[in-house]
Amino acid sequence: MKGGVADTDSNLAAIGLFDSGVGGLTVLREVMRLLPGRDTLYLADNAHCPYGARTPAQVQALSEEISRYLLGRGAGVVVLACNTASAAALYHLRERFPATPFVGMVPAVKPAAAETRSGVVGVLATPTTLGGALFSDVVEHHAGGVRVLTQECPGLVERVEAGDLAGPATRTLLQRYVGPLLEAGADTLVLGCTHYPFLKETIEGMAGPNVRVLDPSAAVARQVQRVAGAGAAMREGRHILISTGDPAPLQRAARQFLGLDVEVEVVTWHHGRLG
User: Fold this and answer.
1) Over residues 73-97, mean pLDDT
2) Residue 63: pLDDT over 70
3) How many angstroms separate the CA atoms of 42 and 241, rounded?
4) What's the sign of the alpha-carbon dihedral 178, 84, 79, 148?
5) The whole model's pTM is what?
6) Of 15, 45, 50, 63, which is closest to residue 267 (Cα–Cα)?
7) Are residues 61 and 115 in the same domain?
8) Of the residues 107, 132, 182, 207, which has the fewest C-beta atoms closer than 10 A?
9) Element (H, E) at 108
10) Rounded to 5 degrees, what are φ and ψ at 150?
11) What is the pLDDT of residue 132?
12) Is 193 a catalytic residue?
């Protein structure tokens, strides 16, 4: 596929997506499958990756500036393809840009609670996601009668960014994080960070055939379709990839997982602004 400049026609406005790194490509992949005629703008904020190590206030400020940048590039919808950014900034962005539709990530606790047989659900996520209002709201409203166990996973995002999805270092971290959830009786695991679906196959191999591992990316793409519309059916969407740091991880991951071979643009931060 070839990159290009996003179409600014209101009926074909680009779908903007952002994450701290390559994790949001799991969402972009589903958006491309569901909406092949839509242009997309994907920004990886590699300069500040991982977001899970930052304060909610820092993530909120970064998310606001990235959203402003994507809107300036022609995005008509902005997808927070990052659970940490969604937890820290989704409500703020909707207030700050009231004319713009924003779609965020919510850990798939609702379907997990409906599917569990043991009554125990495990959630793998970052501290900001687990401590945010989005997560507490979904647990309160959709996990009645189910025991929800949470597990912070420092280091996993960095392994995915490095392209190590099944090596010894990654497997050691996964054993440390997934093992206690399984020992506590969890038969359903929720991937509460967009980086983690890249590790789904490895996690499934560790957990065994009786444990369901849930990735919310497809559900988020369906919400994007509801908000953005299908776009033109007779054209192939154009896809722009942008990095605020080293473009190599994004270039490699997009080629490997999306079959998307485009030159990654690089933009830099100057005193809290992009450009």
Assistant:
1) 96
2) yes
3) 5
4) positive
5) 0.89
6) 45
7) no
8) 182
9) none
10) -115, 145
11) 87
12) yes
Q: Is 213 helix (H, G, I), strand (E, B) or coil?
A: strand
- Residue-range definition of the domain harbouring residue 262: 10-105+218-274
Which 8-state DSSP code applies to residue 44?
E
Whether residues 73 and 96 share a domain: the answer is yes
The three-state secondary structure class of 142 is helix
The answer to whether position 3 is within a domain reads no
Average pLDDT over residues 14-29: 96
Structural domain count, the chain: 2
In the chain, beta strands by DSSP E: 14-19, 40-44, 75-80, 102-103, 120-125, 147-152, 188-191, 212-214, 239-243, 265-266, 269-270, 273-274
Annotated catalytic residue within 25, 27, 31, 82: 82
Q: Final residue of a domain: which of 166, 189, 215? A: 215
Residue 4 maps to a domain? no
- Which is the catalytic residue, given 193, 211, 220, 250? 193
Model confidence over 163-209: pLDDT tens digits?
999 999 999 999 999 999 999 999 999 999 999 999 999 999 999 99
Whole-number pLDDT of residue 6: 42
Q: Are residues 51 and 187 in the same domain?
A: no
| Strands ordered across the beta sheet of 188-191 | 147-152, 120-125, 188-191, 212-214
Residues 229 and 191 in one domain: no
CA–CA gap between residue 131 and residue 221 (Å, rounded): 24
Which amino acid belongs to residue 130? L
153 catalytic? Reply is no
Say if 1 falls within a structural domain.
Answer: no
For 169, the token pair is 């270092």
